[in-house]
Amino acid sequence: MGRVIAYLVLILFTGAERVVELVVSKRNATAAFARGGIEYGQSHFPWMVALHTGFLVSCIAEVFLLDRPFIPWLGWPMLAIALLCQAGRYWCIASLGPQWNTRVIVVPGAGAVRAKGPYRFDWLPHPNYLIVAVEGVALPLVHTAWITAIVFTVLNAILLLRFRIPTENEALRKLSA
């Protein structure tokens, strides 16, 4: 039971970290709008919030309701990967600075960040989404919540590939024009 409680604490800390991200995002959005920022993709944003909230709830629910075990040879490496993903998230957020946001908001004339952090690699145009995808597998598998890992991965891929990434690409094209 101790490892289940430790996993619960991990997920709750992850949720608290997401709340902090939302506060930073809100602050950055307010500043962007004050500078003439334009938001794109408002219709898919509530779905992203629901998916990411459901992901954390599902991590907990699957472990508790389906009595998922902690398997050390799987759980410890997945925990290390999940923690590395957190470091990667912060690298992305720090690299984008005040331009980072959970929404797609561009400020005309601001320019896209291309020479900092993971954004300097042309072959990886959306590094944050790669990190989210890896974390979406690693975090549930810390405690063998494999159904959550599969369902989140599929739904996240649909949301990112059909809506979010095309929206960001379009907004960045308009920013560059």
From TrEMBL:
Main location: membrane
Chain ranges passing through the membrane: 45-66, 73-91, 145-165
Signal sequence, renumbered to the chain: none
Topology within the bilayer: Multi-pass membrane protein
Pfam families xref list: ICMT
Keyword Methyltransferase: yes
InterPro entries: ICMT_MeTrfase (IPR007269)
Family annotation (Gene3D superfamilies): 1.20.120.1630
GO terms of biological process kind: methylation
Protein name: Methyltransferase
Keywords on record: Membrane, Methyltransferase, Transferase, Transmembrane, Transmembrane helix
Subcellular location: Membrane
GO molecular function, one term: methyltransferase activity
Organism of origin: Conyzicola nivalis
The UniProt record lists the keyword Cell membrane: no
Coiled-coil intervals: none
